[in-house]
Amino acid sequence: MSFSDLGLSPEVLRAVAECGYSTPTPIQAQAIPVVMMGRDVLGCAQTGTGKTASFTLPMIDILASGRARARMPRSLILEPTRELAAQVAENFDIYGKYHKLNHALLIGGESFADQLKKLDRGVDVLIATPGRLLDLFERGKILLSDVKILVIDEADRMLDMGFIPDVERIVGLLPKIRQTLFFSATMPPEIRRLADAFLMNPKQISVAPSASPAERVAQALTVVPTLDKREALRRLIRTEQVKNALIFCNRKRDVDILHRSLVKHGFSAAAIHGDMSQPKRTETLERFKNNEVTLLVASDVAARGLDIEALSHVFNFDVPIHAEDYIHRIGRTGRAGRDGKAFTLAGPGDGKFVAQIEQMLGKPIPRIEVEGLGSADLSDEEDRGDGRRRGRGGEQRRGGRSPRGGRSSGRSPAREREAVVSSPAPETPGEPPASPAIEMPIPAVAVAAPAAEETRRDRPARSRGQRRDRRSHQDSPAERRPTNEPIRHETAFSEPRAALEDSDSDAPVLAFGDHMPAFLKQPVRRVAQAAQETDEEVDAA
């Protein structure tokens, strides 16, 4: 079967032929005719099989007739990451160069002004991430009432990144009568329920198991101590014929650390993760695509949808926590019929994650050993959670010598103090042995509290005026007032003077916020009486 058998227009076929493609992939051969018919599609295929072209090619022909209006896009494509959205926009540039279609890219990290200019001119295809799209909608800069085609790409990644509530809100803003195309590399139960809510009588297309790697990717797993993982990675890079490689880490902090380590050892490496600015991420990715750098250390932001031409190797410096992420990571290589290799570096404590991946694959990952480095056991725990860790060779550090050279008891300082308090007194010759003491820590606060209370109780009480008089001695002798004349400052929030002078000496001193202001204690009858006296004075005058 060729692309000409799928019912595409001559302009699209010409653009596809110029890219060097003549035979569609299985997902393209099954999805393109259904999309051209106007039906909803639920597509599930492994990464690297051409899902993007399976909806971009028919959309170009469908949108060829019609006209876009300002701020009212005719179609909407939702993507989980900025890089994947930019790649879809590139596909429209390549395949739609013989059509007069306008498309706009709405992603974070870019200028609002440039994006609004494109929307004001009218766009046929709007490619956006959920956050930026909702931001513009809440500002009143975009209307979604004219969307005829909705594409939700990498839906499982949307679920992992927490975008599903935003996607549900966006779908609620769209017209009820529309065509919805739903694509995902994996189909967990949550995504299945979401598809049932968004799609209407869809055509389900599945060309591969819901989670399976590309067949042309050779996989290998090596288990080394955690402290030796960087050395193992460097030796693998030197022994393998690496043309270009992606190195995945689980955390953004580890991406920067590993990148600096590789550069320090003379490797051509760059880093990309979600905390970088969008211009920096775009520049780094372009340098890697242009072979200006050989190694790209990345977080999972680069694990979905990135199409790097002839990527030879993928290294998992950290075992992915989710088994599905393993499929997406190694799917960056072995694309378009090429061969690829994927190496995973595991350490003690990663046995649970490796077991999940092998259970999903249905077969074990082949083990290899790095020459010159010792191996470790996946069943060993790197951190037991109680402060005890295993060393480089799996030897547990417990009850060993302390850093100062003495023998460590393995107990915390608090337990050491409790042991001292509860230790029995030495026995005296001729006396019966004392009964064993009960180990009960005595809190220091409980012993010191009675003494503090007695000191405060024995202290003579002073009124507020006397305390102010005590502070008045700090003034100069000329301005100092007599000791028998206290200084008083009456405010609206002060207590009545009589209440202060006649108060019991044992009464606690009330701070601001613990008492009622004086003006709130005045009875209402006083206000009426003052008003009556004022009227009498007016009458008398």
SSE topology sketch:
Elements lengths: L9 H9 L7 H11 L4 E4 L6 H12 L12 E4 L3 H14 L7 E4 L5 H10 L3 E4 L1 H9 L10 E4 L2 H6 L3 H10 L5 E6 L4 H10 L4 E4 L10 E7 L5 H11 L5 E4 L3 H13 L4 E4 L5 H12 L5 E4 L14 E4 L6 H8 L9 E7 L4 H11 L51 H10 L21 H15 L5 H9 L24 H5 L22 H17 L1
Parallel strand pairs: 1-6, 1-7, 2-4, 2-5, 3-4, 5-6, 8-13, 9-11, 9-12, 10-11, 12-13
Helix pairs in contact: 2-3, 3-4
Describe what this molecule looks like in 3D.
With 541 residues, this protein is an alpha/beta fold. It has three domains: 204 residues, Rossmann fold (3-Layer(aba) Sandwich), CATH 3.40.50.300; 145 residues, 3-Layer(aba) Sandwich (Rossmann fold); 53 residues, no CATH class. The strands form two sheets. Strands 3-4-2-5-6-1-7 form a seven-stranded parallel sheet. It has a six-stranded parallel sheet with strand order 8-13-12-9-11-10, sandwiched between helices. Helix 5 links the parallel strand 3 and strand 4. Helix 2 packs parallel to helix 3 and helix 3 crosses helix 4. The longest helix is centred in the C-terminal third of the chain and has 17 residues. The chain is globular and about 110 Å long.
